[in-house]
Amino acid sequence: DTAVSQTPKYLVTQMGNDKSIKCEQNLGHDTMYWYKQDSKKFLKIMFSYNNKELIINETVPNRFSPKSPDKAHLNLHINSLELGDSAVYFCASSQTSGGVLDEQFFGPGTRLTVL
Amino acid sequence: TQLLEQSPQFLSIQEGENLTVYCNSSSVFSSLQWYRQEPGEGPVLLVTVVTGGEVKKLKRLTFQFGDARKDSSLHITAAQTGDTGLYLCAEKTTDSWGKLQFGAGTQVVVTP
Predict the structure, then answer these.
(1) Is B30 within 8 Å of A45 when comparing Cβ atoms?
(2) Which DSSP string corresponds to A68-110?
């Protein structure tokens, strides 16, 4: 059984379009995250939700809007896509939002290509 | 924001050889995690080190945390092709709601 799953795996779209990426975790975790990995493989956090509440909101354009309908799901909607949004987006989850020993489990990623 | 520097950026070795990758910072780490990311997949946690001078072993992988908690290393003994991947270090601060600050990674390629 997949622990953290994302859909779609690949997303190719035109500039200016709006798209969504979905994430689900079946681990019973309280906290979920969105990360962006650029073409140089640099991984940077974007958002985090704990029990459906936004707790981390990094400096991200407001074209990106996360939504957590319940603890097991975290979606990412992107408006007016730009070329620079092309990247691999990873969802992750962890049991809690603190604790140095708390492990984050990552999904397989969604490769977004904006043409 | 603390900057994590990883070196080397790329490492190619043959099966059976040893390798070491490094993660350094100018500031003290609260704690440090090492991840491995294989192509087309998300990162997977290998280890968390917390105490200065700590050494942890995971089969052929040895992780060291510097005494001053400003550096860490990952040593792989007798590398195998399955060790190929992107090795990432990340700091997890105690006051950041679980936020991980990643280094740029070391791409390791182990050839037969």
Answers:
(1) no
(2) EEETTEEEEEE-S--GGG-EEEEEEEESSS--TTPPEEE---E
Q: Which of A102, A104, A108 is nearest residue B40 as measured by Cβ atoms?
A: A108
- B98 to A104: CB separation less than 8 angstroms, yes or no: yes
Average pLDDT over residues A12-24: 98
Q: Residue A63 above 90 pLDDT?
A: yes
Q: From the CA of B15, how many Å to the nearest CA of chain A?
A: 24
- pLDDT of B30 reads 84
pLDDT confidence of A59, banded at 50, 70, 90?
confident
Choose the closest CB to A56 out of B94, B97, B102: B97
Radius of gyration of chain A (CA): 13
